[in-house]
Design a protein that fits this description.
Shape: globular
Low-confidence stretches: none
Distance between the termini: 38 Å
Mean pLDDT: 93
Oligomer: single chain
Strand content: 15-25%
Length: 329
């Protein structure tokens, strides 16, 4: 990102704001599975300017599709894990940080089909999984909207950097459909707006599953108002049945590449992404598995949860399995 673009999309916390947010994060850390109502007092105590920046981003639907917060505290850390679901940071104050941000934007949620419903995800390389297209890999991860196959996709996601890669070059790549469509023809956009695309379940939802990978659809890849469109697209898993539509998907990928912002997160940076406006990805890096590898933490936020969904939740904040809600939406 150029300095000018960075300034437009960045909120840098003051020392006082950093201190206040850390205090509140410590209080919220053990309550991530409590209801948003239970945390409402802490949300009201968030530094006013931080709260305003996040709420304005969520309400305005910024065309860039992301907001970068800089200067957060991350606290003491153990070695970067090398196994799945290590629990190394269970109850850590960064649980509270992400919970507060997610609840301010909507409600923190997890998915029963993904990581057994975990609400906070640790994003780091795992030995032997370098080639996997998910958060345990280290190869390039192309543009995708999160949980593209799901009828209840996150409205926002947050990625908090705890450690950079050793070379300090791995980037979180963000690209807005509202900027990308300017590089597409009217015919290409019209094709992308038709409900003829199918998205296979991502690897994080099919880990350990045997048999064919299920898919969802048909759905459009671009939808919503023509002057402020939304996107449902994963360059790895979204496919079309005919050559014309396949070419339109390829053009969308190329347009996203053209408008992409490479954000190299540093420890204490939190990037918040509008999951309906921007696709995101990751550049490649080389893990060393020495305890100091790249380590991010991720959260999902949903603006509104339907009543029937809440009653079907296997536990607080966890979206039911796909087999329970397939075809309902």
């Amino acid at each position: 990102m150029t300095p000018a673009l960075a300034e437009q999309r960045t909120y840098r916390l003051s020392e006082a704001e950093t201190h206040k947010l850390w205090q509140l994060s410590r209080l919220a850390a053990g309550a991530s599975e409590a209801s948003a109502l239970a945390l409402s007092g802490l949300l009201l105590d968030l530094p006013k300017s931080v709260r305003t920046a996040l709420l304005e981003f969520a309400e305005s639907g910024a065309d860039s599709g992301f907001l970068l917060l800089r200067g957060l505290t991350i606290g003491d850390l153990p070695d970067t894990p090398t196994v799945h679901h290590s629990g190394a940071l269970q109850g850590h104050p960064t649980d509270g940080t992400l919970t507060l941000v997610a609840d301010l934007l909507g409600s923190l949620v997890g998915y029963q089909d993904e990581k057994a419903g975990a609400l906070i995800h640790d994003v780091h390389a795992v030995p032997g999984e370098e080639q996997r297209i998910e958060n345990s890999g280290s190869v390039a991860f192309d543009f995708h909207t999160e949980n593209v196959h799901h009828p209840l996709r996150p409205d926002h996601l947050g990625l908090l950097c705890l450690r950079q890669d050793h070379e300090g070059i791995a980037a979180t790549r963000v690209a807005s459909v509202r900027e990308a469509v300017r590089h597409l023809t009217e015919e290409q956009v019209a094709i992308l707006r038709t409900p003829q695309f199918h998205s296979s379940y991502p690897a994080s939802f099919t880990r350990g599953r045997t048999g064919p990978v299920p898919r969802s659809g048909p759905h459009p890849a671009v939808f919503g108002p023509y002057d402020r469109p939304f996107m449902r697209f994963n360059s790895h898993t979204t496919h079309a049945a005919d050559a014309e539509a396949t070419a339109a998907l390829k053009a969308l990928s190329e347009a996203l590449e053209t408008v992409c912002h490479d954000v190299v997160l540093e420890p204490g940076d939190l990037v918040v992404v509008d999951n309906h406006v921007a696709a995101h990805g990751r550049s490649a890096f080389v893990p060393r598995y020495d305890g100091r590898d790249r380590w991010l933490r991720r959260c999902y936020s949903v603006r509104s949860i339907l009543g029937w969904t809440q009653h079907m939740m296997p536990r607080q904040r966890v979206i039911p399995p796909m087999e329970d809600i397939q075809g309902v939406l």
